[in-house]
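Worked example 4.2. Below are the chains of a multi-component assembly; read each line carefully before continuing.
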Amino acid sequence: MTAASSAPLRFRRLLLTGAAGGLGRQLRQRLKAYCDVLRLSDIADLGAAAPGEELVPARLEDRAAVLALLDGVDGVVHLGGVSVEAPFEPILAANIVGVYHLYEAARLNGLKRVVFASSNHVTGYYRQDEVIDAQAPLRPDGLYGVSKAFGENLSRFYFDRYGIETVCLRIGSSFPEPKDRRMLATWMSFDDLERLVMASLTAPVVGHTIVYGTSDNTTRWYDNRCARHLGFRPLDSSEPFRAAVEARQPTLDHQDPAVIYQGGAFVRTGPFE
Amino acid sequence: MTAASSAPLRFRRLLLTGAAGGLGRQLRQRLKAYCDVLRLSDIADLGAAAPGEELVPARLEDRAAVLALLDGVDGVVHLGGVSVEAPFEPILAANIVGVYHLYEAARLNGLKRVVFASSNHVTGYYRQDEVIDAQAPLRPDGLYGVSKAFGENLSRFYFDRYGIETVCLRIGSSFPEPKDRRMLATWMSFDDLERLVMASLTAPVVGHTIVYGTSDNTTRWYDNRCARHLGFRPLDSSEPFRAAVEARQPTLDHQDPAVIYQGGAFVRTGPFE
Amino acid sequence: MTAASSAPLRFRRLLLTGAAGGLGRQLRQRLKAYCDVLRLSDIADLGAAAPGEELVPARLEDRAAVLALLDGVDGVVHLGGVSVEAPFEPILAANIVGVYHLYEAARLNGLKRVVFASSNHVTGYYRQDEVIDAQAPLRPDGLYGVSKAFGENLSRFYFDRYGIETVCLRIGSSFPEPKDRRMLATWMSFDDLERLVMASLTAPVVGHTIVYGTSDNTTRWYDNRCARHLGFRPLDSSEPFRAAVEARQPTLDHQDPAVIYQGGAFVRTGPFE
Amino acid sequence: MTAASSAPLRFRRLLLTGAAGGLGRQLRQRLKAYCDVLRLSDIADLGAAAPGEELVPARLEDRAAVLALLDGVDGVVHLGGVSVEAPFEPILAANIVGVYHLYEAARLNGLKRVVFASSNHVTGYYRQDEVIDAQAPLRPDGLYGVSKAFGENLSRFYFDRYGIETVCLRIGSSFPEPKDRRMLATWMSFDDLERLVMASLTAPVVGHTIVYGTSDNTTRWYDNRCARHLGFRPLDSSEPFRAAVEARQPTLDHQDPAVIYQGGAFVRTGPFE
Amino acid sequence: MTAASSAPLRFRRLLLTGAAGGLGRQLRQRLKAYCDVLRLSDIADLGAAAPGEELVPARLEDRAAVLALLDGVDGVVHLGGVSVEAPFEPILAANIVGVYHLYEAARLNGLKRVVFASSNHVTGYYRQDEVIDAQAPLRPDGLYGVSKAFGENLSRFYFDRYGIETVCLRIGSSFPEPKDRRMLATWMSFDDLERLVMASLTAPVVGHTIVYGTSDNTTRWYDNRCARHLGFRPLDSSEPFRAAVEARQPTLDHQDPAVIYQGGAFVRTGPFE
Amino acid sequence: MTAASSAPLRFRRLLLTGAAGGLGRQLRQRLKAYCDVLRLSDIADLGAAAPGEELVPARLEDRAAVLALLDGVDGVVHLGGVSVEAPFEPILAANIVGVYHLYEAARLNGLKRVVFASSNHVTGYYRQDEVIDAQAPLRPDGLYGVSKAFGENLSRFYFDRYGIETVCLRIGSSFPEPKDRRMLATWMSFDDLERLVMASLTAPVVGHTIVYGTSDNTTRWYDNRCARHLGFRPLDSSEPFRAAVEARQPTLDHQDPAVIYQGGAFVRTGPFE
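Applying the procedure described above to all six chains together yields the following structure tokens:
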């Protein structure tokens, strides 16, 4: 049986892009346990390679660099690109052109699956009193959200045409702890993030799956029932932080779009001219 | 920041109507912790005011009284009115005219949110082998259920027109313990009732939310997935009471509408002529 | 076979309430053909009885009068009551108390079916770019709409409990011709109104059916697919009036709630204090 | 109150068919606690009767034998018949003709409820990256699955016509422990099987209920929210076995239909000519 | 290009089973125009073969005969079998065993598509005030309906496993004209039947399609929107016959299940013992 | 009343992009009747300006040019960009960067509504035996389809954030007549195209509406019931062309993805490297 015809539980060479970012640094420590070699990429400084790591800096808008980046890997966790609301040009370069390069590289290298960091901001214009699932029509809350929606649609196409599977992780807010009342709904612990990434990498069949990434919070806007086949069950919760968060933010301005919509402050960022 | 533009976590003056009733007496003890002053109202005797309490008896069909009742409050938990199947006249006075007065008072006093005790009896004519959610068309099981449906619709209008938020609590059966086999499905502990009321009062955005109020029972007819944004998670269950309940009621008559329909005995109460 | 056990195609005595109103005057002329006696009721002047007519004025809030009104009839078309946004008191009297009296009278007289004029205003707070069906949650646009929702819920109860069937007609705008651009969506010709009423009276089984009443207009907000069992197919259309209507109203103010919401001007009527 | 008008919690004589099979042997030990007499049937050897047991071997295709088999029982758990993919003739005899005999016997003996072992193979042609519920259109994965679909439809008819209730258990994989990665999704412990069977036998009202039978596995393809009224809550999980299972089956062939579809190896069994 | 890889518009040898029945005699006249040879089969007398016809009588329960029957054909319209409520044995033989033989013969002969006469009786226990589509859970109204459900499920399996396409025609009531008020909803003219059969035979891709077969009646219980890809548009209607039908059947007994349920008289046929 | 606060029926200056393309040339002739000045843009030769026309060539990837292009217009029909499957670079330039420029220009120029030519290829990977509506998750069939999905998502954002309305036209196949059997489903006559464009420009409220653009074909894959508020009713049909089309293409290869999927030949175009 060749690698091409199997879904591995342990990877020979796993690629983590965006490895210098907030979540990247977390996963860098954690993913090493599941692979022989962890290839790390970013445009920011990655520091020195630890044993079992290899550093391959690459700009996502550089097609040749991305082709090389995926050469020889049997799994990809793609966190790379712009991860906040920003002017169109950098989003275009990294999140649109770059994601296209990533999927072309997956196709040309015969890769079978990608774990793609999408974002809750693809549906950020739903209200905070709505509960949605992965089939709700997209309502992105900014150019960043629109670019993540592009990645979801592009990966759907690569599955339908080429059979390359993708799990789109609509990550909420992954920080050491929830910072504000919005994050009581959107927070995901680093441990739950690791669980979600590993379930996405190793579930037997994922096709093109969309899953929201949060912990098992009591307050929730997202319904993941369409993604139970992944085998992701969050074990943490924002609830132990509730009292502290509420004490810091005892009132909310109901006229503020950031309070009304799920996207939070993203819905009032920009425009950038 | 003015009260008008914020959702408080702690209330200066919280109004509890129906405070002399079964659930009212429970909440009277519990809500005091969340406010400076707890204003209590009923048409039945409320006893003496404890520290931090103020007693404001009012008939709901008395418009001026209800206007005064809501004056100066920044939160309302409305349990008042008829809470069982009854002839039309008292239901009309308290649950239809009275609820209209309540919302007019909220509008005129600039109140931003109401927690409204609706009832599972707005959908009592679903069968006990059906599981429904808050979007199921209403099927009230009596005049009481019809009047609670009126309150739900009226509060929807006050949200759409005036922005006054409401959480409609379709309360099941809140008693010290489940009394019969129907209550294995519908029972809500007083602790869970408190959790539900407080989540409804303090969730950042509720718009017009409908939620069923039961504990985390193993037998369930209601699906609250549309209301997870409230942050209500019941922690109790009817299950520990199952053996005792079943021992008391070992057989059921399948010809009895009260066994077939979710509304239980309500579906065979009346008509009142 | 007794009358009680059959749905007639021709009525011995058909009752039309609200017979002095705009639609009542239309139906008065038209329903005579389907019954031996047409009983007409209103609180306004009904003029003189034509052959085959009998005039029975009654106030809907007068229980005894309504009981007498339904005595001996084998079909009811209930247009009576307040049909525009108004202060709460007259709506309460006619559309809430009155409708309760109507259904009690139906129950006590053994009537099997009611055709009830509900209104598009039970869902008037949907936007004009939404298409809804009879299962959409109610969003009434005023006290009038709330009162019609009460009638729908009450009649549901009378079907579930007593087996009295009702067709709720959510009538759009029935006038000689559409008057403005909103009516291009909501208009129903008088001929289509007659078709709808007769289908509702004579369809073999209706249970509790909700149907929107409009002609076969090109612009539509309502989807009647759940009511095809009625056998109602509109044959007219607002389209021939489009050019004239658009010429009279060439621009619309997009800030105006009456332009945004399906309820039109109702959404900015009131409050009445 | 007669037995015919009540749903018992304890049975006088409970019938278990297929009692010599894998699940039958488990339930034989467990069901005795809930009845005075446990009648056991199979075509394979049942060994000796223990106290409180009675052995009634019967071929399901023998109408008279099945009529006698159900005589005097007040509850049936029907596991009998072919339980794997097989040629059409034995499936026809046991699972089609036999199930017809079972329901005729229930009707003629006045039995009020049947617990029927259907199978996950009635929907085996859904993909392993899909999550379905009991309302998903059937997609059987073989003749066995088609025969179980027959049983589901036949029992629906016996409920609609004769009021005989059925719970259709779409059992996943009930073994001492999950054997392969597919069973991480489909596994049901014997304790959870017992819970499911007893909930199905004793829930007050079941009408015609379809429920998937698995433990509370982290990886799931089935959504049982339409069956919560049964009061079945699995307490076990395949998760503790995950590491061992994955170690034994570290890779999967993505070209293999048994990996792609929920039915597993059933989707490549047969045809039998 | 071989026949096996194409969907023909004109058939070399088209098989019509049940050719001596009511609909069979109609289609015998009409299908000749679309094929070189029309093979006709039945167990009843087929008379003499006209030019271009060949007569191949066969019992459906005779596997070898059915294998021979499908030899050399490139299209099948399967009307054969029992077409009314009947005792189980003949239904079993023709509609269960027989349909299995038909699909085995299709598989072994390399046939690519079957047009299968299912029936509205697979959903006959829906009420006459409900409108359903092809995804509504089945509610057969008798053994005949259960057997047609078997055919639908079996053909679904043959599509998922072997790629043999089927269009399941849930035929209403195809007669020269509607005979009673139920048929105002269920009637299909012979011309519309021909249109439906030909659309089903020749649409480019049908997979496994379920379609209700009625004319464009004003009264309808069925919603075919999931089958528009077939290209079937009925051109006739029961409406011109309404007055005559209603005159013959002016009242209906609302206690009669045949009036309440879509299956009509089928819901009170049997049981056969 | 200012232009900004009204939806006009007649435009002062209407912009048509892509005016030199196949559909552009059709609309150039037709839109003149609805505006004082028709501004035409393309990168291909537009010939000479007719009276009432003004020619403003612009490259969509040129931000300044697009800003100027929308200056002074009160309506936009955006057909510009790549309209077939193509390498990524031109699609990126025109359909991604270009559409972003278009919406920025709309925002900066205070334009209130855009009619945007999306494409049926945003859902091209649905099968030809499926019927979908505008809420079906996207399944683009190529880079072109992915780019049109980008435009739909971007325009959703501009509506949610800035209130700029868009009608996304998922145009099928608009040609003088249907060329092949796929177009029997997807064809839209030029007259129906004009009706659709004008309904989209002038409907009172469109928010963000998605509509499939085909004629009233008998064979259909698309359900436009969510867009009836537009007032678009196609009057033409592919049916009169059926015989000729079928005669030219009597067989289809069922192994060909272009036969199986709605996207037709697009699903086998590319990849471009």
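Take a moment to check your reading of the output against the notes. Chain C has eight helices and nine strands. Chain C touches chain F at residues 127-131, 181-182, 184-185, 218-221, 223, 246, 250-255, 259-260 (CB under 8 Å).
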